[in-house]
């Protein structure tokens, strides 16, 4: 919500109050991902060495809450730009860090559904973020002399700070860290499950001394293939940042527009659980990435070919389905790295950082996309199809690239250790 609320704020005077012109709004979105990309790999390398990652993650949650409030305080474009860049730096700690921690607790055939549980937070933020934004923007304008869009950052940033204090006691540490809610036998069981699932390669002492996790990850073509696929996929999914803008083109006011944004994400959330459960059970990732992306293609083609308001709204439901592919692909990344935990930490961070590169470029190019691609008049159809190529190409190539990376997956041939 702290990252995406800028799109809702745009509907209520953000650009006018900060005197933004031209591509500056798109730059404001992109700069968040610049910080997000730069911090992920160093953060995960550091996280892997910590005894209490819960304290590390909770601290940065608190910091990004303060920075979100700072965006509401900004009085100029450049002030908001600095705030959003620092927000990206602080948020970069959380997502790849939690994904890595999940891989330390769950086996490969359990990880997909747990990824869906975790990633549903992003979808829930799209649902309740839109609902909360509609309420704040409708009733808080002018309170204590602040515009409604500023209150949006104040309230959501403040809630983030409160959640950070709670998360210090809620976020678990690694299975190797003694905790009150697990006995020593249960901790040993948790560690043994992962050791058996990865053929014991996490404990190859000679290998861990010989090469660092950073070197292992960056010299492995599997990691590069998967990172490239994440970048391509995320570039094609960047329409989500502009979802309120897309809905606004149907002609409703800010409150109704934000309420209409919630329903496509609710369906996407329900779909993600079904798809991830089946993906884990079947052991397949490729078709579970391709299927949701094909649904997204249907949504975009539908939006291009009609001016009917009801059908265009239906197209948003199809578009939201394509985000399910991101969760599947992220689980695929973690499943493909069987070696040391440090290598897996770097690989996950590098893949999500590559996804951030996709967001940076797409956020800039989407200015023309959202303005002229989806909901323009029929006579402009040729131009709109041409500008929509980034999505079609992205969803066509990403599953193939990821499959190339998966072909290099290590096959576990060692015997399962005795229990």
TrEMBL record:
Q: Spell out the GO cellular component terms annotated for this protein, sorted alphabetically and separated by semicolons.
A: membrane
Residue ranges the record marks as coiled coil: none
Under the heading PROSITE patterns, the entry gives: MFS
**Membrane spanning stretches:** 55-73, 85-103, 115-139, 151-171, 223-243, 255-274, 286-306, 313-333, 345-378
List the InterPro entries.
MFS, MFS_dom, MFS_trans_sf
Question: Topology with regard to the membrane?
Answer: Multi-pass membrane protein
The protein's location, in the record's own words, is: Membrane
Specify the protein name.
Answer: Major facilitator superfamily (MFS) profile domain-containing protein
> GO: which molecular function terms?
transmembrane transporter activity
- Give every Major facilitator superfamily (MFS) profile domain span: 1-419
Alphabetized UniProt keyword annotations: Membrane, Transmembrane, Transmembrane helix, Transport
UniProt-listed SUPFAM superfamilies: MFS general substrate transporter (SSF103473)
């Amino acid at each position: 919500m702290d990252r995406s609320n800028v799109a809702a704020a745009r509907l209520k005077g953000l650009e006018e109050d900060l005197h933004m012109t031209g591509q500056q709004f798109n730059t404001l979105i992109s700069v968040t991902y610049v910080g997000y990309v730069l911090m992920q790999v160093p953060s995960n390398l550091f996280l892997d060495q910590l005894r209490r990652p819960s304290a590390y993650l909770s601290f940065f949650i608190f910091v990004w809450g303060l920075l979100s409030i700072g965006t509401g305080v900004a009085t100029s474009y450049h002030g908001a730009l600095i705030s959003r860049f620092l927000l990206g730096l602080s948020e970069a700690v959380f997502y790849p860090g939690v994904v890595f921690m999940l891989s330390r607790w769950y086996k490969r055939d359990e990880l997909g559904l747990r990824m869906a549980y975790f990633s549903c937070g992003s979808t829930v933020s799209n649902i309740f973020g839109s609902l909360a934004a509609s309420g704040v923007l409708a009733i808080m304008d002018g309170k204590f002399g602040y515009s409604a869009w500023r209150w949006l950052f104040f309230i959501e940033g403040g809630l983030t700070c409160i959640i950070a204090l709670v998360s210090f006691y809620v976020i678990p540490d690694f299975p190797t860290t003694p905790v009150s809610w697990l006995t020593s036998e249960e901790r040993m069981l948790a560690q043994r499950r992962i050791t058996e699932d990865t053929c014991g390669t996490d404990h190859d002492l000679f290998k861990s001394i010989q090469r660092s996790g950073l070197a292992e990850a960056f010299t492995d073509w599997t990691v590069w293939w998967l990172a490239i696929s994440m970048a391509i996929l995320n570039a094609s999914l960047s329409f989500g940042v502009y979802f309120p803008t897309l809905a606004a083109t149907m002609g409703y006011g800010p409150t109704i527009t934000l309420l209409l944004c919630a329903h496509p994400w609710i369906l996407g959330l329900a779909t993600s659980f079904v798809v991830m459960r089946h993906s884990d059970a079947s052991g397949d990732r490729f078709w579970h990435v391709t299927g949701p992306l094909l649904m997204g293609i249907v949504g975009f083609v539908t939006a291009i070919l009609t001016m009917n308001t009801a059908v265009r709204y239906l197209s948003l439901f199809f578009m939201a389905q394509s985000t399910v592919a991101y969760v599947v692909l992220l689980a695929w990344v973690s499943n493909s790295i069987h070696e040391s935990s440090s290598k897996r930490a770097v690989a996950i961070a590098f893949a999500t950082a590559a996804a951030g590169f996709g967001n940076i470029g797409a956020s800039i190019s989407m200015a023309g996309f959202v303005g002229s691609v989806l909901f323009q008049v029929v006579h402009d159809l040729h131009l709109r199809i041409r500008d929509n190529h980034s999505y079609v190409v992205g969803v066509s190539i990403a599953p193939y690239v990821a499959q190339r990376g998966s072909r290099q997956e290590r096959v576990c041939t060692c015997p399962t250790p005795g229990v």
